[in-house]
Amino acid sequence: MNNHSTGNVSAPSVVSSYVTSPQQWLYGGGGMQTATVVFGQQVVLTGQVTAVTAAGVRGVLHAAVLDGTGTLVVDMSGVDSLDAVGLGVLMGTHRLADSNGRQLQLTNCPDRIARLLKAMRLHRVLQLAA
After folding, report:
1. Is 30 exposed, middle or buried (0-12, 13-18, 19+ CB in 10 A)?
2. Where are the domains of the chain?
3. Residue 27 confidence (pLDDT)
4. What does residue 63 show for φ and ψ, rounded to 5 degrees?
5. What is the pLDDT of residue 83?
6. pLDDT digit string (tens) for 20-79?
7. Which tops the pLDDT comparison, 1 or 78?
8. Mean pLDDT of the residues in the chain
9. Torsion, CA 120, CA 72, CA 18, CA 108, rounded to 10
């Protein structure tokens, strides 16, 4: 079950277990938890998206991009901290999605994170939705 591999992204160390079905994975580590609600379509982030959690978050997001079609929705409502490395993970995921004919949409960003993205003018690149 943990031998999932997609393209260049290998997820055995990233995806720790299936939650309720093959459509739902859970990763937890370093102050971050991700749940893939609809595989390849929607990911929920909770906790910190920082240098400590970047590798795990990147693995989950990149696997979701490579395994789905259309828009990948990332629910940010539970994210309480985002640093420069975390921003890099989101930008890298956006580039990967774009190169695979997909869009990355960040939903339910907490106000402080939305303000950060706007201050850095990343809202012009990353699609933000309520």
Report:
1. middle
2. 13-129
3. 53
4. -60, -40
5. 95
6. 333 344 455 556 666 666 778 999 998 999 999 999 899 999 999 999 999 999 999 999
7. 78
8. 79
9. 50
Domain 13-129: which CATH class?
A: alpha beta
For CA atoms 25, 94, 10, 4, give the dihedral sign. Answer: positive
List residues bridging with 29 in a β-sheet.
32
Backbone angles phi, psi at 89, to 5 degrees: -65, -45
Secondary structure in 3-state letters for the chain: CCCCEECCEECCCCCCEECCCCCCEEEEECCEEEEEEECCCEEEEEEEECCCCHHHHHHHHHHHHHHCCCEEEEEEEEEEEECHHHHHHHHHHHHHHHHCCCEEEEECCCHHHHHHHHHCCHHHCCEEEC
Site of tokens 């459509």: 23
For residue 80 the two structure tokens come to 């309480």
Say what the pTM is. Answer: 0.75
- CB atoms under 10 Å from CB of 43, counted, come to 25
Q: Which residues does residue 129 pair with via DSSP β-bridges, in sequence order? A: 107
pLDDT at position 40 is: 84
